[in-house]
Amino acid sequence: MRRYRTFEEVDKDLKILQLQSEINKEELKLNLSETKESLSPSKLITGLVGSLTTSAILLKLLTPIIGFAINRYLRRKS
Fold first, then answer.
1. How far apart are CA 62 and CA 75, in angstroms?
2. Can you tell me the distance from the alpha carbon of 37 to that of 16, in angstroms, rounded to the nearest whole number?
3. Which residues cross the membrane (predicted)?
4. CB 9 within 8 A of CB 15
5. CA gyration radius for the chain?
6. How far apart are CA 14 and CA 35, in angstroms?
7. End-to-end CA distance of the chain
8. pTM for this one?
9. Are 25 and 33 in contact (CB under 8 A)?
């Protein structure tokens, strides 16, 4: 625990704590605003469409490779 020698030291630390508190409140407001924006229906739909598109492209690319692997496995087994 810090020991203060003067009231000026106390006032200085109180001012610093007050400013830190204000910064934290503003950061919280900004984070809340960003969260609300990211959860908006348009952002959610855009994200969903992007995910589905990526999944469809991956599926299209991987289908021949998976088919080849299964075919090769079945040939070895027989």
1. 20
2. 32
3. 44-70
4. no
5. 29
6. 31
7. 78
8. 0.54
9. no
Low-confidence ranges of the chain (pLDDT < 50): none
pLDDT for the residue 32: 95
3-state secondary structure the chain: CCCCCCHHHHHHHHHHHHHHHHHHHHHHHHHHHHHHHHCCHHHHHHHHHHHHHHHHHHHHHHHHHHHHHHHHHHHHHC
Q: Which tokens is 43 given?
A: 């952002």
Question: Which residue reads 């739909």 in tokens?
Answer: 45
Q: What's the rounded Cα separation, in Å, for the pair 48 and 54?
A: 10
